[in-house]
## 1
Amino acid sequence: MEIRDFYYHLMVEGADEFAIIMLDPEGRVASWNRGAERITGYTREEILGQFISRLFPPEDVWQHEQELRQARTEGRGAHEGWYLRKDGRRFWGSGVVTPIRDTDGRLAGFSKIMRDITDRKRFEDQLAHKARELANINAELEQFAAVVSHDLRSPLLAIAGCAQLLREQFAEQLAGEGAELISMIQDGVNRMGLIIKDLLAFARATPARDRVEEVDMNEVLSKALSDLNEPVAESGAVITHDPLPRVMGNANQLGQVLNNLIGNAIKYRSGEPPRIHVSAGERERDWEFSVRDNGIGIDPAHFERIFAIFQRLHEDGRYAGSGVGLAICKKIVEHHQGRIWLDSQPGRGSTFFFTVPKQTDGPGI
Ligand code: ADP
């Protein structure tokens, strides 16, 4: 054996992660390394001279024939699929076949290099299965929230109507404490209406609902600001912004994020008129947006909690709201494969940050 062949032999034998197989032009096994023995369970003595097609489940033999045909005509054949081991168990193999030609260009056989990637395949199947399950659960939840909020709305409207009638028609009898109780009913009804509306908005912030495209964040911001006209005017808020970039995303949903963050910056203002600044910084893989305010600020102990649904730091009725806004922001930003967080100190204002990747895989959104 020449020294070069010796090293070649060592390499082929040593690579026991890979089956390295030589076939004759008809597809019979001409050489079989240790990797092939390990992966398939056949020893070299058992398999030499046998057709390699015996490694394929009967229903997939045509794929093997196609792999050889492809190698002959295109110079390379590839196959990924189930193979049969000697003991009848199956493994998922991935490999390539290359033709070997003699000096006259005649087909002398094939080389086939293959790996057992059953574990990876199982893992991918499980992931795909989980992803389908999650998508189904999400769809069910969305439907559930829509139905529940629709069904809750009708009795709520009936209660609101009755309270209004009581107030109008029994005003005299209900003076004083009675009127106060009716006001409490009406407040409760209004609050419940808001929670139902927000819950529905949360359920609707789902990936599949809206399309992803290139969006101009300057336009998204203008639209969000025009929706906030009233609170901006009422509070005397001054809102400034840097030039904003174009990103891949859903304009509607990103608008909702800005709307919630700026709406909060106005709502949780301190004694002074709100000063709010929206900016964007380019980083290697994403854009980082921020909304900075000079409001009441937040204790760092609550940074995590406020992104969970229905979590509020002021339950005493000073500020209207249901604690869903930031949960919606988080859901939307994560659908865009970004992150959301904040920096704040009580009495010193808050800055909310979120990122939007420059490249998105699409289906996640
Ligand atoms: P909501 O405003 O309806 O309560 P959010 O989910 O938008 O719900 O916010 C959750 C909580 O986080 C708020 O109740 C408030 O306590 C706090 N918060 C949010 N944004 C700000 C902000 N800009 N400044 C101070 N506190 C804030």
## 2
Amino acid sequence: MINLAIFGFGTVGSGVYDVIRLNLEDIEKKLGDKVRVKYILDIRDFSSHPLKELFVKDIDVILNDGEVSTVVEAMGGSHPAVDFSLAALKKGKNVITSNKEVVANFGCELLKTAKENNVRYLFEASVGGGIPIIRPLITCLAGNGIQSITGILNGTTNFILNEMFKNGKSFEVALKEAQELGYAEKNPAADVEGLDPARKICILSDIAFGHKVSPDSVPTEGITNITLRDVKDAEKSGYTIKLLGNVEKCEKGIYIMVCPFFVKNDAMLANVSGVFNGVRVIGNAVGELLFYGAGAGKMPTASAIVADIMDVESKNKLFDAAWEDDADPDYVLDISKRETAMYLRFEKSPDASTVKKLGLTLIEGTDSSYISARLPEGEILSAIREHAVASSFRIL
Ligand code: NDP
Ligand code: HSE
């Protein structure tokens, strides 16, 4: 019998229970053993819940039960999630999580602790919800030098952008719907201000390039400054605005950022809508790949967690993730040196010398919205410093 425990019985934790119940026969057949959720730990009151017998409030009950081989941490937040996860690993239990805040900030320590205790720490659900992206990066793409990863990594904001600009809803209404659907973080500022996708691009970068990047070091901008006027200008020039996490490998380090980009309408990422996420990976052997699917939500996220449970319980270990907290202080490069084209909306038309210097092309049907030539970002920003620029976006 495989005995599991779930920490946190909210959207994701309850989804894990439901997916196991939905597919129990198949799961047990594949694992060659019976599977049960023995305990659920949650601070809320579940005394009238049909599963009330499974609920405990004291983590030690789970930690001290030698029958429990794997725990799922789906509580969210850094503390006590990281402390509970470390404690479970030290007690010889595998830990599976969807908690990107913990993986991005404490992943190194958790992976080391897992190794020292001969157990595993897996986190497929921490990036892209139900999309398989972590395991493919570690295993299927192991033979590649990864050159860049660019993705719509937050379902809530992609959903909000769609509801606001395609369906005419207000920001407040769209956010409320995302919360009701279980997509948003407990504090949705993490979604709309870009911290959640920053954590996710750090996790992908850590895996792809082997060095920890702290989410604090990622230039991060969310969706709150995007206006209807920007969206209309994007449409006029054949682009769509998407909040992207982006990391690019360079000779001496990485460029990494989270911000809204203008994305060409015929690019694969432009067509990723609603709660869906898309992650474009470019490898030096495989070329361009796109991973696509539901980026948040109860059942898709639980699907990734249950696969991790089956991975650890099947003992068919392939490669585990590993990275070091050893990057040089200048590993994260200054993005002002990165070359990019930009969308620029001036309050009034720029002078001829600025137009020439930045290679500005007026967007048809606008008075003073332009697309610049591809130049180091710092050069563009310093050339427009003296001008009143109402809006600017990088172009993918
Ligand atoms: P929820 O808030 O729906 O569920 C978390 C549950 O854990 C709540 O019942 C919460 O209680 C409980 N909890 C919080 N602290 C403790 C504690 N110290 N001890 C026991 N129980 C606790 O969150 P989600 O299920 O949405 O998210 C869980 C994690 O998964 C987060 O890290 C999130 O970022 C991540 N994630 C979420 C996705 C989604 O689509 N929702 C997708 C991918 C990842 P209370 O409400 O009282 O705090
Ligand atoms: N709040 C997150 C999102 C959940 O909307 O993408 C999935 O990680």
